[in-house]
Structures are given as structure tokens and as C-alpha cells.
Design a protein that fits this description.
- This is Glutamine--fructose-6-phosphate aminotransferase [isomerizing].
- It contains 13 helices and twelve strands.
- It has 364 residues and is α/β, with parallel strands linked by helices.
- The strands form three sheets. Strands 4-3-5-6-7 form a five-stranded parallel β-sheet, with helices on both faces. It has a five-stranded parallel β-sheet with strand order 9-8-10-11-12, sandwiched between helices. A two-stranded antiparallel sheet has the order 1-2.
- Helix 5 links the parallel strand 5 and strand 6.
- The model has no long low-confidence stretch (mean pLDDT 95).
- The protein binds 6-O-phosphono-alpha-D-glucopyranose.
């Protein structure tokens, strides 16, 4: 077992460090940085030309990747909705023949996601599986598949597969936009360049992260909160999910805009707040930072801080390289993976096999 952990104490830590390689495989031969386009050999030209709306169905971490993709698609004018697959199964699927249903599942075996996709298909939707596992059940249930190529993941808490899911879904988003509108999005060229730099940027986070110091500083807090807007909202949810899964500490993620509508009542000097800045809507998130600080909460900003303004207000900064705002969330998430890992490690939790949780849930 030591051998397969490659000298790391836990699979999770190993898999966090495997992300540069995983992302290289996810994007390999799919990026055309020269033309600013995406090349997905699975899909011939105009494959998505008829798509009018996109539904993303998934559970757990994969649902957060689905939310991320929905945020990008909506920002480019393609109506998109992320559903928890288990909830999609209790409604009449709101699909039309022009709906593309994207099922996101690392394992390809999650019962709720399989059930939801079957129902969507029966209702007439076209279905596409985004998965890590070749030949998994979801690839047989769906019309098409897009592999994320992250490599095997053993730790129960998903890490590298989230980064690869978000990256693959970002490529899919650009491809859908190109087919639907007949032109590349204005973001495409910069985004493809940023994606080609992403493995190196993740490596930089891994090499320079101060996450362990933050975990030590805030050990023993009452609760840990995570906030973000737009595509940083699912990153906040994912940061909290990782933290609670492996540390067993109380952690919650919120849309930064939601704070005033309830969560602010929970904020005290003993509830550090992790605030995610991606370069989109940073001003608004900064005003939320000031609100929680006024209640005495320490703030840890995850930011590349182009303006210097965030650093001025935050109590601590977990720095990420400057990149395209649409994928900055991947880098922020790596910092949050490391915070969760170190917090759980300090508490000597069984990181690779947290109590009551399974890598793959095959019952509804
Ligand atoms: C379980 C795992 C999570 C995972 C979720 C969905 O809850 O512990 O890490 O995100 O299932 O799994 P899937 O294989 O469908 O992505």
C-alpha cells in the first residue's frame, strides 16, 4: 500500500499532488491555443448546434462541478441548470428534445445519477456522460461520453477528479457555445491559453501553499464558513464539503450574496470565513468580507489579488496565480483541498476513509 501511495501518507494527499498531471491529460490534444478553440474528437462539427438548454445532473462533488459549468454556460447566454440528481428523480424531467442532459459522475456508478439520466432519456432528452471511468454504467446509459482522464482516485474525498471535471466541462461549454452561436466566445482564446497554463499554475499552488499554517492557526474553531459568487459559489460549497467530510468539523458553504439572509447570524470570532475571489465580482465579495469582519470573524481570502485591495482587508491570504477568472476557481479549490487535508491531519482523522462515507453510492 505504501508503494501505491508513492511515499505520501494518504491517497488524498497524493491525489491532490497528482493534479498537474491529471489536468494535462484532461486537456491533452483538446486545446487549440492558436485558434482559441476546443477540439473534442468525440464530437463532430456542429454536434451541439441544436442545443437550446443544458441540464447538469450529478451528486456530491460532481454536483459542484455541474454548478460550475452551469454558471459558465449561463454567462455565455446558454440557459443551463444544475440539479442534484436525487432531486431530479422526484420531478417530471423538465426537458424538451432540444435539451442536452449532461450527467457528471466520477465513478459512473452513482445510483441517483443513473436513475436521473434514465428518466431524462425516457422524457426525450439527449444525454452525455462526463466521467472518469471508461465503460462505466453511465457511459452505457448515455448517448455520448466525454472522459475526464484524471486517472484512478482512491481517496473517498474527491480531489483531482473535481479539477478535471471542471476543466472538461469548461471545454464542453466553449464547444457548445461555438456550435450554438456559430462563433467562438469572446473569452475562448484567453481561456484556452489559461487552460494550457493551468497544470503549471496548480503546481505553483502546491509548491507555495500556506494552507497548513492556516489549518494550525484556526484549529479548534466552532465552525468554518466558505463564501463565493458566480462560479466561486460551487467552489465555496466544495471547500466546505471537503472540510466537513474529512475533518468532521462543522463547515458550510454559501453564496456570498446569501450571507445577509440568515448565515450571518452564525458568524462569530470563532468562525473563520474563507472568501473566494476569482477576479469576477470581487468588489461585491469584498463588501461581504467587511460584513463578517464587523462581527469579529477572521477572513482568509483565496485570491490572486490583482488590485491589492483584497490583501489590505483580509486577515490572511492564500494566494493563487493570476489567471482567467473562469478557471480561477480550480486554483482556489486546490488551496481549499489543502486546508481541509491539513485540518483533518492535525486532528488525526482517517483521511482516506472518513466514517459513514463511501467512494461510490450505488443505492438511492
Ligand atoms: C460519493 C463520494 C463523493 C462523490 C459522490 C458522487 O458521495 O463520496 O466523493 O462526489 O459520491 O460520486 P460520482 O462517482 O457520481 O462522482
Amino acid at each position: 500500500e505504501t508503494a501505491t501511495k508513492g511515499g505520501y501518507e494518504h491517497y488524498m494527499y497524493k491525489e491532490i499532488h497528482e493534479q498537474p498531471g491529471a489536468l494535462r491529460r484532461t486537456t491533452q490534444s483538446r486545446l487549440n491555443t492558436h485558434a482559441g478553440g476546443v477540439e473534442l474528437e468525440e464530437f463532430p462539427p456542429e454536434s451541439f448546434a441544436d442545443v437550446k438548454q443544458v441540464h447538469l445532473l450529478a451528486m456530491g462533488t460532481s454536483h459542484h462541478a455541474g454548478m460550475y459549468a452551469a454558471s459558465l454556460l449561463n454567462s455565455r447566454g446558454i440557459p443551463a441548470y444544475a440539479f442534484m440528481a436525487g432531486e431530479y428523480s422526484v420531478i417530471k424531467p423538465p426537458v424538451t428534445p432540444d435539451t442536452l442532459v449532461v450527467a457528471v459522475s466520477q465513478s459512473g456508478e452513482t445510483a441517483d445519477t443513473l436513475d436521473a439520466v434514465r428518466r431524462a432519456r425516457a422524457a426525450g432528452a439527449r444525454t452525455l456522460a462526463v466521467t472518469n471511468v471508461v465503460g462505466s454504467s453511465i457511459t452505457r446509459e448515455c448517448d455520448d461520453e466525454l472522459l475526464i482522464r484524471a486517472g484512478p482516485e482512491i481517496g473517498v474525498a474527491a480531489t483531482k477528479t473535481f479539477s478535471s471535471q471542471v476543466t472538461a466541462l469548461t471545454l464542453l461549454t466553449e464547444r457548445i457555445v461555438e456550435d450554438v452561436t456559430g462563433a467562438k466566445s469572446p473569452e475562448a482564446r484567453d481561456l484556452m491559453e489559461a487552460l494550457s497554463r493551468l497544470p503549471g499554475d496548480v503546481q505553483e499552488v502546491l509548491d507555495t501553499s500556506m494552507a497548513r499554517e492556516i489549518a494550525i492557526e484556526y484549529e479548534g474553531s466552532d465552525a468554518y464558513f466558505f463564501i463565493g459568487r458566480g462560479a466561486a459559489h460551487p467552489v465555496a460549497l466544495e471547500g466546505a464539503l471537503k472540510f466537513k467530510e474529512i475533518s468532521y468539523e462543522h463547515a458550510e458553504g454559501f453564496a456570498a450574496s446569501e450571507l445577509k439572509h440568515g448565515p450571518l447570524a452564525l458568524v462569530t470570532p470563532l468562525s473563520p470565513v474563507f472568501a473566494i475571489f476569482t477576479g469576477h465580482e470581487d468588489e461585491a465579495t469584498l463588501s461581504n468580507v467587511k460584513e463578517v469582519q464587523a462581527r469579529g470573524a477572521p477572513v482568509i481570502a483565496i485570491t490572486s489579488d490583482r488590485s491589492g485591495e483584497v490583501t489590505e482587508f483580509a486577515d490572511h491570504v492564500l494566494r493563487i496565480p493570476d489567471t482567467h477568472p473562469d478557471i480561477a476557481g480550480v486554483l482556489a479549490n486546490v488551496q481549499l483541498q489543502l486546508v481541509a487535508y491539513h485540518a483533518a491531519d492535525l486532528l488525526e482523522r482517517p483521511i482516506d476513509k472518513p466514517r459513514n462515507l463511501a467512494k461510490c453510492v450505488t443505492v438511492e
